[in-house]
Amino acid sequence: MSGDLRVVVEADGGSRGNPGPSGYGAVVKDAVTGEVLLERYAALGTATNNVAEYSGLIAGLRAAAELNATRVDVRMDSKLVIEQMAGRWQIKNSGLRPLAAEAAGLVAKFDEVTYGWIPRERNKDADALANRAMDEAAGKTTPERVERELTVPKPRSWAPPSLENATRLILVRHGETAMTSQGRYSGRGDVPLTDAGEAQAMAAGGRVAGLSRDVGAVLASPLVRCVRTAELIAAETGGLPVTVMDDLIECDFGLWEGKTFAEVQEGWPREMTGWLESTSVAPPQGESFQTVAKRVRGALAKIIEAYPGQTVVVVSHVSPIKLILRDALAAGDAFLHRLFLDAAGVSTMDVWPDGNIAVRSVNETAHLR
C-alpha cells in the first residue's frame, strides 16, 4: 500500500494475575472504511497488565508501519498508556520506560500519530485477541494459523545491544553566541558564533571524531550558528559537506526573542506560566513545543531512512535536541525544563530499524574543558 494511508490502531493487553500469564492484541483498520487490514496477538508469559498493554501498542504500530501508513489514530482503553504516550503523564515505572521508548521510536516513522482513550466495550476486537493469546498459551483453545499473524515479542535483556543495523545519531548543540553567553532566548534570530563558540565547535569536532571517524553525514539547522558549528565538526571528521535540514531549526520564541528569563517573567507572567505548564502553549507570536516536536520527529524519521546503519552528526539547538532526547527516553514534558544542554555539548543515541533506541550519553562537555 502507498499514498496517504490513515489507519486506526486498536490495542489491548491483559494479565491473569497482574503479574501473571499475559498476552496482547492489536487490530489495524482503515480509518475511512473500518476494514480490518492486519491483526496481531501473542502471549508474553508472566507480565503485568501495563506491560501487556504497551506490547499491544508496539505490535499495532509495527503492523501500521508494515502497511506504510502515514497517519495513525491509536485507540486504547488503557488511560495510562494513552496519557503517557501523549506526554501528559510521567512514566514513573522504570519497567515501562523501555517499552515506551520503543513505541516512541515507531511513532517517528509516521507523519502523524494521535492518541484517544475508548471504553473497553469499544475495544472488544483487540481485547478478544489478547484473551485468545492467553487462552492459546494455556492450552484452552487451538491456535488459529490461517488468517492470524502471530508476532513473537523480542526477548528483553540488560545485555548491551548489538550495533548491527543501528543508525548512530551524534546530537550537538551549536557553539556559543552572544545571546547564549547572556542567557537570552535565541530562536530564529540568525546570530553568529563568538570566538569562544568557534573554539567550542572545533573541540566538539574532536569529540565527534573520537566517537566515530566513519561519519556518513553532517546535518545542520539552517541558522548560521549551527551551519558554522557543523562545518568545523565536518573538518575534523573527513571534510564532508554540511547538509541543511530546515526542520532542525530552533523554536520560534516570538515576542520573547532576545529576552532573558527574568525579562519574560516580568513582561509576560501569565503567558510564561502557561508555557512552562504545557507544551501546547506557544510564546506570544511564537511556536509551541508540540509544534517543534512534530517537525523534529519528521526530520528524525527522514534521517534514519536516509542513513540506515550509519553515523550521522546532527547539529541543532536546545529545543529540538531536548525533544529528541525526551522522546528517546520516553520522559514526560517536565524533562524539557529540567535538562540543561551546554553550548557545543554532545549527546549520542542509537536507533534500530525496528524502532528500538539506546541513549548512550547526554550533554557530554569534557571536550570543552
UniProtKB/TrEMBL annotation:
It comes from the Bacteria. CDD domains: HP_PGM_like, RNase_HI_like. InterPro entries: His_Pase_superF_clade-1 (IPR013078), His_PPase_superfam (IPR029033), PGM_Phosphatase (IPR050275), RNaseH-like_sf (IPR012337), RNaseH/PGlycerate_mutase (IPR014636), RNaseH_domain (IPR002156), RNaseH_sf (IPR036397). Residues 136-158 are annotated as: Disordered. Residues 3-143 form the RNase H type-1 domain. Residues 136-151 have a biased composition (Basic and acidic residues). Gene3D superfamilies: Phosphoglycerate mutase-like (3.40.50.1240), Ribonuclease H-like superfamily/Ribonuclease H (3.30.420.10). This is Bifunctional RNase H/acid phosphatase.
